Amino acid sequence: MAFLELLGLLGEEISDPEEESFLLFSQALPSQNLGFMDSQATSIDLTVAGRDITVQQSPAVLSSNRHEGTTGAVLWRVSPLVADWISYPKNFLFSHSILGPDSLVLELGCGITGIVGLALAPHIGRYITTDQEYLLKALKQNISQNSISPKAAKPLKKSSKFTSKMNRQPSGGLNIEVVALDWELSSISSLPDLLGGTSTIDVLIGCDCIYNEALIDPFVRTCTEICELRTRDGQWPLTVCIVAQQLRSPDVFEAWAKAFYKSFRFWRLPDELLHRGLRTNSGYVIHLGILRRALTENIK
């Protein structure tokens, strides 16, 4: 089975979050400040997955005093790197059949640009971008202006059961949906209704979502609840969780790793599975997690 072969490809599993933090922050990490591409620009031109795109961002929102957070209003450096890597046709997720033409991917905290979805959506069946309500108008605009003609996808089903904090909105991309999701306030239980009655999320992505300790528990809880949807249906293979981060604070990273370890078995992706800009000493790291209970139940 390709999924079992994948586990062998990943190498040594993380068994000690403190040791993982020590090893990562012992690298010769470059100085990258907070990691913004350009926090002052209202638009950014870049090439992602072989395509030239222009994304709009909001420096004014970033510098505001908005209580619920502002960091999603601009593009972060790790996002284009992850977009290039995950959309590459020879990425191990494709070669091991975790991703394919019919796959459904959900991204947490996609930010104002939706750049990972723009790169990956043309290669899969459906892509769900999520973030807080205040970003959605600009996010939909960026997706609409930069989408290429993807494969036809079934429209996602509206659900009256969803809370007012988690509502589906059209994006302008045929197979990209925009959903308001606040990790601290949104309900995950009705997510299958939004997805048209399915809970078959193949890959869950979180790209640079963890930059302070207050976000860790809501983020890990949301990851766990989403991955549990597929587990409850008894489906296999299980949802794969991809978490990409810039290495900023060893304390924050270690706190995330300890929390994630409680619910997930996880692996740091080795250099041979990554593009050059994401490898050792780059200042970035990508981990792959699979829900601990689900993996134990399905692999005897």
User: What fraction, in percent, of the residue positions are helical?
Assistant: 25-40%
Shape: globular
- Main sheet? 8 strands, mixed
Strand content: 15-25%
Ranges where pLDDT stays below 50 over 5 or more residues in a row are 150-172
Output the radius of gyration. Answer: 18 Å
What structural category arises from helix and sheet content? alpha/beta
Q: What would the average pLDDT be, to the nearest integer? A: 84
Number of helices: 11
Trace the largest sheet across and list its strands: 5-6-4-3-7-8-10-9
Distance between the termini: 14 Å
What's the helix-strand series? HHEEHHHEHEHEEHEHEHEEH
The tally of beta strands, per DSSP, is 10
Description:
- This protein has an eight-stranded mixed beta sheet. A two-stranded antiparallel sheet has the order 1-2.
- It is α/β, with parallel strands linked by helices and 300 residues long.
- The radius of gyration is 18 Å and the shape is globular.
- Helix 2 (17-25) runs antiparallel to helix 10.
- The protein contains eleven helices and ten strands.
- Helix content is 31%, strand content 19%.
Give the SSE map.
Elements: H1 2-9, H2 17-25, E1 43-48, E2 51-56, H3 59-62, H4 78-87, H5 92-95, E3 104-108, H6 115-120, E4 126-131, H7 136-146, E5 168-170, E6 176-180, H8 191-194, E7 203-207, H9 216-232, E8 240-246, H10 250-263, E9 264-268, E10 284-291, H11 292-298
Parallel strand pairs: 3-4, 3-7, 4-6, 7-8
Antiparallel strand pairs: 1-2, 5-6, 8-10, 9-10
Concise summary:
With 300 residues, this protein is α/β, with parallel strands linked by helices. It contains 11 helices and 10 strands.
